[in-house]
Amino acid sequence: MSEAPNPTGPALVELLGMVAYGELLAFDRMAADARLAPDLHRRAVLSEMAAVEIVNYRRLATRLTELGVEPAEAMTPYVAALHEYHDSTEPKDWLEALTKAYVGDSIADDFFREVAACLAEPDRQLVLDVLHDSQYADYACHEIRAAIAADPKLANRLSMWARRLVGEALSQAQRVAAERVALTVLVVEGTGDQAGVAALFKRLTAAHTGRMTAVGLNN
Amino acid sequence: MSEAPNPTGPALVELLGMVAYGELLAFDRMAADARLAPDLHRRAVLSEMAAVEIVNYRRLATRLTELGVEPAEAMTPYVAALHEYHDSTEPKDWLEALTKAYVGDSIADDFFREVAACLAEPDRQLVLDVLHDSQYADYACHEIRAAIAADPKLANRLSMWARRLVGEALSQAQRVAAERVALTVLVVEGTGDQAGVAALFKRLTAAHTGRMTAVGLNN
């Protein structure tokens, strides 16, 4: 991102609301995914990772309250889009759940990291902190690689699944971008212009492709 | 309980394994119940309470590891019984979820508190600490009372639901008692004899009846 326009007001609240709801949903989804775990040990690991998201949620909710905004109110605009995304991409098993976390969380984290660059302190650091804390993608990466090494046929099914996830995520992202004007303006201004937005998408896509290759999936 | 026989070995591991699995399940169930919450604020509150259970789980798992036992191994014997209990008592809405937490968690906590009295330190304090930390029952009590005050007809449906919960819980508890011999011996020795066990059940029942009355439900 080319500059830090120091946004306050609507754009900051929209961003923090989105990240906060993302944490609450990440918690929810990891807790649900834990039920798909093939053994008690993995289930406990995932449950412990889920609990970390709540600590992050609390930090974001506290910051929103400081800014004079009810956290629930700031999160509400994202409920429908994220609900639809998750409803249309319900994992059927443990590996689909892991792939979803690996693909989706990583793209979301990359995006938020770019947007964080548009923020002033303390919000920039707050967003970077909560993103950094997410361990699920690393764990998922490790598990997916091991599963594909043990059964190479899995790569095809999981690659198709990953493509579907990206498609659904993009369609909900467009919806959010159209509805959250202040946030969209922040991203466009932060990247410079329309060409900057295109460059941002190119970076996100390249990083995604690299991650797919890293675990043995095809883009 | 009449004495503290200072159990080590199988009974202690069986008890800590049961409490640890209880925490993991409480987390799981509260995370699932959060999805039934009527608004984002309540959903966040419940998610934050769920995360506390994981901190407790970690303490118990660490203690089991210290005792040379793999936590997953110590928890495994309780998976089937608790799974069946929860499967047969899936709440259909937010108030059923709250009632289940209020009724079930409170009876379980009372029982574990009695059994903790049979333990030596540091395990006695550990069990009491993790029980004390459970805030869901108090929260549920408050919400149920408010809901019944607003709509007294609810009391009948929730009273029937509570009776079903107790029935299912007792049938699974009998199964665990028959399978976990060391733990059952600990409870019988801790209470003194068969009459002591009967007195224990009487105390648990009396406390349950008191809690039902407190929120406006019939036993």
UniProtKB/TrEMBL annotation, chains A, B:
<dbReference type="InterPro" id="IPR012347">
    <property type="entry name" value="Ferritin-like"/>
</dbReference>
<protein>
    <submittedName>
        <fullName>tRNA-(MS[2]IO[6]A)-hydroxylase (MiaE)-like</fullName>
    </submittedName>
</protein>
<dbReference type="Pfam" id="PF13794">
    <property type="entry name" value="MiaE_2"/>
</dbReference>
<dbReference type="InterPro" id="IPR059125">
    <property type="entry name" value="Ferritin_actino"/>
</dbReference>
<feature type="domain" description="Ferritin-like">
    <location>
        <begin position="11"/>
        <end position="189"/>
    </location>
</feature>
<dbReference type="InterPro" id="IPR009078">
    <property type="entry name" value="Ferritin-like_SF"/>
</dbReference>
